[in-house]
Design brief:
The chain has 11 helices and 12 strands. It is of the alpha/beta class.
Length: about 325
């Protein structure tokens, strides 16, 4: 009997749950609105209901290894609780892992969503040929994670990968974290929208002004569309984004010399607009990146690439978690 695991990707808007076999084949995906605003118990019931459906649909032909749950926040891995998560009211200090295990009767592995994305990219995406990688996730904020020797690397507090709060501009824009000049203030979707709104207030771009008038939401994607139409002000915003990412990556590459750095999250869709400035900054600031360029033809050097899995990375990485973890004895023989 072949094995499978269930991955759960809990976001602020959407909840996705997938059954994935040990070869990486997606057997089934269930998706719904996460309903975070309806309270913790509602969300947990939605998660449990979809896990049970996948267990029923695929358990007769596969042995279930367990459930991996990716959530946005800082995770206490030993306790199986969310230590901090601004987007999950009522979840902090709640024993999520134990609660779901009691509800379902199967092993649950809890992990940060960005670490799940990095693990998914390692398993089935851009990182299939390497053991170590770093992934930056560009969304409302900027996060990320490391995979070292094929598994997520957490650091001593479980907070490794807080790339959004690396300083890229000394004494730059203030950040809610208490510092200033953080990467998140220049490379997140929130930052793109802020810079565009400031340009509109200064009357620098008629194209951005028109876009803001016809698009009530006026997102970072809207700004990207204007840049693609040739607007110089919109493109300069993505130049700022790329430069900030280049500074952050130069420091990461110089310090760690990993073979692969992946740019993921929704912001990765703007790769054509920000990547030229990113690589220009890397050429100026990273001796390790420059030194590795002649070796890339021999599969050495440093590779920087957008995600290959797009928004599936976190879901696939969550499903991968139970396949990697050595589970306690009571969970090692779960079969349905």
């Amino acid at each position: 009997m072949s094995s499978f695991a269930i991955g759960v990707d809990l976001g602020g808007t959407n909840l996705r749950v997938a059954a994935v076999d040990e070869r990486g084949t997606v057997l089934e995906v269930l998706e719904t609105l996460s309903g975070i605003d309806r309270g913790r118990e509602y969300v947990l019931d939605q998660i449990a209901d979809r896990i049970r459906r996948l267990m029923w649909n695929h358990g007769a032909r596969h042995r279930l290894l367990g459930v991996g749950l990716g959530v946005p926040g800082i995770i206490d891995l030993d306790a199986g609780v969310v230590h901090a998560a601004s987007n999950l009211p009522g979840w902090v200090a709640f024993p999520v892992q134990n609660h779901l295990e009691r509800m379902l009767g199967v092993a649950v592995v809890l992990e940060n969503d960005a670490n799940c994305a990095a693990l998914g990219e390692k398993w089935l995406g851009a990182g299939r040929d390497v053991d170590d990688l770093c992934m930056l996730t560009l969304g409302t904020g900027v996060g990320g994670g490391f995979v070292v020797n094929g598994s997520p690397w957490h650091g001593v507090l479980g907070m490794a990968g807080e790339f959004g709060h690396m300083t890229v501009i000394a004494d730059g824009i203030s950040c809610p974290c208490g510092s200033c000049g953080c990467l998140e203030q220049y490379a997140s979707a929130t930052a793109i929208r802020r810079m565009a709104s400031e340009a509109i207030e200064r009357r620098e771009s008629a194209a951005l002004t028109r876009m803001a008038e016809i698009d009530p939401e006026f997102t970072a994607r809207s700004v990207f569309e204007v840049a693609c139409q040739g607007d110089g002000v919109a493109q300069s915003i993505f130049d700022t984004m790329g430069s900030a990412l280049g500074i952050a990556l130069a420091n990461l590459i110089n310090a760690l010399n990993l073979p692969l750095y992946v740019i993921g999250g929704g912001g990765a869709a703007a790769w054509p607009a920000f990547s030229p400035a990113l690589f220009s900054e890397l050429e100026r600031r990273s001796i390790v990146f420059r030194a590795g360029e002649p070796l890339q033809s021999r599969r050495k050097g440093t590779i920087i690439t957008p995600t290959l899995l797009n928004d599936s990375a976190g879901l696939l990485g969550a499903a991968r978690l139970p396949m990697l973890r050595k589970l306690p004895p009571q969970w090692q023989s779960v079969a349905l």
